[in-house]
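A note from the maintainers: we've had questions about how concatenated examples are separated. There is no special marker in the raw files; a new sequence line simply starts the next protein. For clarity in this README we add a label.
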Amino acid sequence: MKTWLETAQKFVPLLLRITLGSVFIVHGWGKISGDLAQLGSTFGNMGIPVAAVTAWLVAIIEFFGGILVLLGLYTRYAALFIGLVMIGAMVFVKFAKGFQGGWEYDFVLLMISIALVFLGDGPVALGQFFKRNES
């Protein structure tokens, strides 16, 4: 007989997806709806390579990746790209500030991304609905 904890484990990916997806939808929308040319200039000042292109890529990955993660569609891929964005943020911007008040938040988001790469959508996701309809 399963305990309630064993039963509840299937909701862990959903909780992680809600957390990661909502954070990146908000941050990605802020970039997409803002001045991407200015963001590219800011990225360039931080030493981020190919800054104008990187600004667009980061905005797209954060916003649309966040939507995919939240919905549970292509979660592993979206979480992988979000994780890469977090690594970039930590390396190019946050490491110099130290852990506390620097890269601690990015580290948490990176770890959630990595967990979702391993866990996938979970059973409560649109991705599961489409998988069931494929057979």
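[label: protein 2]
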Amino acid sequence: MKKDQASEETSLITFINDLISKIVNAASIDISDGLGIDYISTVDSNQWLATHKHGVLVVNNSNELIHQFYPSDKKQGTIPGSSIRKVFEDSDKNIWIASEQNGIGFYPRSSGKVKNIPRAQGYSH
């Protein structure tokens, strides 16, 4: 890895963790065991933060938590796991959420509910 690339990655990790700290302090979420893994800024200027143990945190421009996606065995339309590796916004403004173990979540903004795509449906890790 080049020195500049390593420096950029360290800066990004520091930025994500600082942002998460501000958010969780305001929302009283304990993330001592699950810091941020990935981060995107979406077209609507919200920040989507993938965490290691706390699902996905969505915050607005004022660093206020506006939604936390977290898995639930009892509720349909939740993300596939609490350990999230990647979040991605596609060209149609839909959000894709990749979990560590349990597949991919697809969040079409039009429905407002997460649809899970289990690993068994044709993709490999």
